[in-house]
Structure formats: structure tokens, C-alpha cells
Amino acid sequence: MNSRSMRFLVISSSLLVVEFILTSGKGCTPFGHWACLFGYTFSMNIIQITTFSQDDQFYLNVLVRNIGWNEAQAIGQIQSIRHFLHDSNSIVIFARDSEKIAAFITCQFYIWNRLGQIHGLVVDPGYRRQSLASQLVKRVEQFLQQKGARGVYVDTPLNNDGGRRFYERIGYKAGYIMPEYYDAGQDGVTYQKFFTTSISSIHSGFPGGGGSS
Description:
The structure is a single chain. This protein is of the alpha+beta class. The protein has helices at residues 30-38, 56-66, 71-84, 132-146, 161-169, and strands at residues 6-12, 17-22, 46-50, 90-97, 100-110, 115-123, 151-157, 173-183, 186-194. It is built from 5 helices and 9 strands, in the order E-E-H-E-H-H-E-E-E-H-E-H-E-E. Strand 5 and strand 6 (115-123) form a beta hairpin. The longest helix has 15 residues, at 132-146.
């Protein structure tokens, strides 16, 4: 591990969000730093928010197939993730339960129009109704605000009633319909959310998002 700090989020089973910095000190672990910061040790069932590695490809394939994605969609998402990991204007965040991937989100910031695009948001069916999706979207929105973004948008199938209700519940509004966007006879709809303020002066330190613009 190099000298840079990495930012992790830990979401407990009660959905309490705790944030801390993992540095490159020898023998440091997330729980070691937590114990150092708070002066005691403990254990809990947690879901850890972290970055993507080559070993995750198998678990990612399992996840996207659990939600019904086909081979082309799975390959496309993995290729996008690999690209985003090397792009300082993109962010990739995974929610991990031990080795298993419980959820992930990918997002790209476009400098030319100062908008972010969520390219993928997936939660394993067994981990739904635990606020993972809303927590991941929140972290993406903060990353984009740190980049100085005006807002964010996301595409979803027009007949994805559950997805549409989710985005509307967290403040997104339907912008426009895209006929046959996903396939013949499968229209898409774009949801948008515009920020009232941005915090572009703050350096981005989220996993998957690089440094300055």
C-alpha cells in the first residue's frame, strides 16, 4: 500500500454510518485504527464500503446475474468499472459483506457540463431494504459536489417501477423519455437531480475517485 490515505465507510447492521481514515502505517487495520481513535475494541456485523479488485470479478458476475442481467450487460459493467478506477473524475464504490459484494455504484463526472452520471447502481436482492442504495447514492453525490458538479442524472428502464420510485423518493425528477434506449421495445427514462450548492474546494478522497479534476 502506498503513502496515500484511503477513505472507508462502515455501515453497521443498524445502518449507523461511521467514517474513518485508513493510513499506510505498518500493521494498521480498520479496526486497529478504530480502536486507536476511540480507545477500545469491539466486534459487530458490518458491511464495508471499499474499492474494486480483480478478485471481485467473480462476485460481481454473481451479483449482476442475481438481478437478471445478461452476459453482455455483465461484461459491459465490468469493463466500465475497470475504466472508472483509472479516471480521477469517476468513482466506484462497493458494499462488501466479507468477500461477497452486496451492492455497488459507479458514477462519472463530466467537466464540460459539470454534471455527473450514475452508470450503475445494483443491490443484491438479499441486502435490499437496508438503505444501502441510498447510502451509496449519497456518497456519489458528495463526491460530485466536491468536484463542483451542478447535478447528477441516471438512466433506468421506463418499466422499472421500483427503481423509479427509489429515485423519486431521494429527490430525483424524471427529465425525459428515451425510446428503445435499452433494446427494441424497451424505453428508458432519465432522472435528474440538481444541487443547490457545491463544495469543489474540498479535495476528493473517496474510494474509486481520484484527486483533483
